[in-house]
């Protein structure tokens, strides 16, 4: 596979100001006729014009009004030498959407035709300059059978439609906003429509339309509500208004990722759009709200201002994730949202950044750009934007956004252009800060402290430890406070000046000290509040101090964090005991601290449900000196069991108290109550009592929403009981024909701490509801199994071989999904001995495949290196 470098970027030789497409859908193929107005884009000699085109059946090319033209055709390009600087080309080709199982370009999901063109799918529809810095005004005519395809949709406004002979009809769409072709979309099919409307702050009425399979009309309300909230929020907080008169969303079952922000015509994975209380959990409702928002926010950050090239991907993704995170935080609990965002960042991005496929948020090179839609580009990218926000504040940040749109609306730009806007608006210099864009790996910040009794001063010293040899020190914000022994916030005084009780310090050298004055006693520091920088904090803190912060820190994130650090220290001790074959004993200080939190009056249920949960297996194994998920899992269970035992009565009582049978309402408060209640249930089932199994069984049987029903199923999945088997069987019978809900059944079993195995996976892939061509099912079965660390890393290597075989199978028809699954081998470098040999064999089996896609090759070859 070829490597492409950012340093080789060159402006396009030609532009395409206008694109007119006609797409005719027939039974056995689709015919695409394009009429492209092309213009030379430099002042020198005329160069050849190389149009991208892949998997296309070429039919003809000519200048408008002429007969023939000299051209060269290969499997990747159609090349001509233009006769003038300004001309119109007419090209015809055919495509085969029915057999397009890679789900890129124009393909079929069930009976629906739909497209996915980001990043480089448009070249699989027709010959084009498929690059994001070529922006064009599109007019699209679609023709198809009117019985099979009553809906014909594309971007922009419908300007014409009508009947044709032979039971066919047509529709013509015109998008007034020039856009790169990756934002082009087309949908044809028999879909139900649910609609609504939104009036913008300037008084324009926007029609909102959701298109779904017939029968799913009752699952659209939440997406529509979320869309209206997004539109309002973007007006209120960012002063951004929608620009077309129509906003359409189509939900399809076969989709490689979550959703796509095509101009005026978003296409969604049905799991990320459709919900009602019976078919979706709180987590689904929340995620749908945030994805609907994310795609909507792209209309400005991504579509109106787009990326110059794909190395700039974080320009739109990091910024848009930051925006959707802020949206969720403004609408729900900010504290809970921040904790969950950081948890996700550490469990996915930190791991990626420590593994073989680590890359900067702005990569310098790639083999296959599809491999770079990563937690690094998205989530770490959002953290980088957040640091700017933390350092300059909301009002300067908004001025920066204004500047960004003033300078770059309608353009394809770079991350430097964004940072420049922020610099101009805030008067700051972010030259050093930009290292966050080009260096990979999570930096560590070591902190030491010193209290000087006589001088009443407290000194904090921060030292940066970088990941790679060539790295240079970062510029980053440290939000902090100091607590006295009563848990009160202390005034921060430096060099005689007061900074209130909370401030943001900035680090820019490898070691920096800050002296806080006027302190009568040694304070307890609360550092990196709200996780103000994406770093690993290394600071020796006594267990007593962590317990203290868990009780008193005014910053919810750090309160949670103190508990997690305390639990991790304990799990580490338990792992040691297990390794030494000693009887593991759980420290009373730890149990007391958590029991106190559970009963604390100054924390809400949603927070407690998060803070009372033991750290994730990933976050534990990432800190192990020797990677050992089996021991980590055991230690984790010992701590959970001890917490359950120590609080059994309280958990049982509070489970009952919140087990009210009210109607399901999705809002932050109810969501918090449900998660607390289900956390109680989860802990109770750690205890071997038939009563608690009945409790879960009863909740499973009588729940009036999927959140509670599925939580009961998951609680039962921790046990080996007939209740578990009955619930699983019941769930399958109930939902086996539902493309969305049944996936939970696969994921819950594949990811279960008890009972999952390669044998089980081989059984599940044979049930009728499974389909390896559907990416959601692949993620829920094989993806969930590969994320089940003790199973995937089983000593005999069976997990590795199962996943390797599936990657090889997927590689032959859907390289993107195969490559995604290949990332499961990321711990290769941390393995030892026989375990490593087993994984190596599995990886070598993949690498040896003929016709290995560049997607899979890039991931696996970098893993083996
Ligand atoms: N921009 C799309 C992602 C496209 C992924 C292509 N492999 C969705 C999003 O980030 O909103
Ligand atoms: Zn996005």
From TrEMBL:
Q: Name one GO biological process term.
A: proteolysis
Signal peptide positions are none
- Domain Peptidase M1 alanyl aminopeptidase C-terminal per the UniProt entry, residue ranges: 544-865
InterPro entries documented for this protein: Aminopeptidase_N-like_N (IPR045357), Aminopeptidase_N-like_N_sf (IPR042097), PepN_Ig-like_sf (IPR038438), Peptidase_M1 (IPR001930), Peptidase_M1_dom (IPR014782), Peptidase_M1_pepN (IPR012779), Peptidase_M1_pepN_C (IPR024601), Peptidase_M1_pepN_C_sf (IPR037144)
One Pfam family assigned to this protein is Peptidase_M1_N
Domain Peptidase M1 membrane alanine aminopeptidase, which positions? 223-436
User: Which CDD domains does the annotation name?
Assistant: M1_APN
* Gene3D superfamilies to which the protein is assigned, alphabetical: 2.60.40.1840, 3.30.2010.30, Neutral Protease Domain 2, Peptidase M1, alanyl aminopeptidase, C-terminal domain, tricorn interacting facor f3 domain
- Domain annotation Peptidase M1 alanyl aminopeptidase Ig-like fold: ranges: 441-539
Known EC number(s)?
Answer: 3.4.11.2
* Domain Aminopeptidase N-like N-terminal, chain residue ranges per copy: 20-183
GO MF terms listed in the record are:
alanyl aminopeptidase activity; metallopeptidase activity; zinc ion binding
The cofactor(s) it depends on are: Zn(2+)
Catalytic activity field: Release of an N-terminal amino acid, Xaa-|-Yaa- from a peptide, amide or arylamide. Xaa is preferably Ala, but may be most amino acids including Pro (slow action). When a terminal hydrophobic residue is followed by a prolyl residue, the two may be released as an intact Xaa-Pro dipeptide
What's the domain of life for this entry? Bacteria
Q: Which UniProt keywords apply?
A: Aminopeptidase, Hydrolase, Metal-binding, Metalloprotease, Protease, Zinc
Into which family does the record put it? Belongs to the peptidase M1 family.
Q: What is this protein called?
A: Aminopeptidase N
**Annotated organism of origin:** Lentisphaera araneosa HTCC2155
